[in-house]
Automatic annotation (TrEMBL):
Superkingdom assignment: Eukaryota
Keyword annotations of the record: Membrane, Transmembrane, Transmembrane helix
Main location class: membrane
Membrane-crossing segments per the record: 12-34, 46-67, 73-91, 141-162, 177-199
UniProt-recorded name of the protein: OSTA protein
Native organism taxonomy: Eukaryota, Metazoa, Chordata, Craniata, Vertebrata
UniProt subcellular location: Membrane
Pfam families membership: Solute_trans_a (PF03619)
Gene Ontology CC terms: membrane
Its membrane topology: Multi-pass membrane protein
Amino acid sequence: SLSAGLDLPGRFLFAILTLMTLIAILVFIEEAVYIYRKIPSSKRSIIIWINAAAPVISTTSCIGMWVPRSTMFTDYTAGIFFAIVIHKFLMMMIKDCGGQKVLLKRFENGRFTISTGPCCCCCLCLPHVPITRQTLFWLKLGTFQFAVFRPVLIFLSIVLWTNGNYVLNNLSPKGPALWISCFVGALTLCALWAVAIMFRKVRILLKCKNIIPKFALYQFIVILNQLQTTIINIFAAQKIIPCAPPLSSRARGSYIAQQLLIMEMFLITVISRVIYRRKYHDLEPPECVAEEPGDKKETP
């Protein structure tokens, strides 16, 4: 069993990490109750979803740490949840601007800069796109497709894995793992690109709502949950991370990734509580929205 294979320092580390996960869950529950009571209903669910990203990843990592055979399912659960959070973050920026109609009026003559990361940061020759209802639709579609297609691809991967056709180590062109991974990577880049385009346009307007620290936390979750885990798994597959009996290189890499994620997501949960709990004043409405026909009547 797992507990029998651990020495005293190992058991102490597992206990500390489990405690950190439980604290992160309690902090999120307390924050969710506060948001439910204090935040308007139009923004309530979006902010709760975004704040739940770090505790959910921490919880799935803790389960995978204690039950190694569940790692594939816990990683996929965290991946599905984070795909939804990316779409919610884009919607939060639109809501903070006053909604889609108000955003279009604020930036009536503005343009989106699409030469930004992670897709086109080097393509400075790309044209600036006018901000219209259609371009907003494409940005929302860019994140929504990820929230829809990633769960479908993950479900397909699990079905193929149970049938023995999906082997994560087998990256040959004849196997499905390579093609599914490439397709998921392309969908991820499109979703992150849409969020980056919107953030670049509204970051100055929403500076009073601390959008820059919020975006930084979101970026940290992306880097730690996606890039860090992928790098560790590649190192483990190439035997760069040495085996430590009874753990193989891959199992040890999985443990390292999960333990790092628990500590990192705990810190992000605490910082998110501080940032999202502040009370921010609503933006002043644009002149074209605030000005009504009745306001132009002369005072007797």
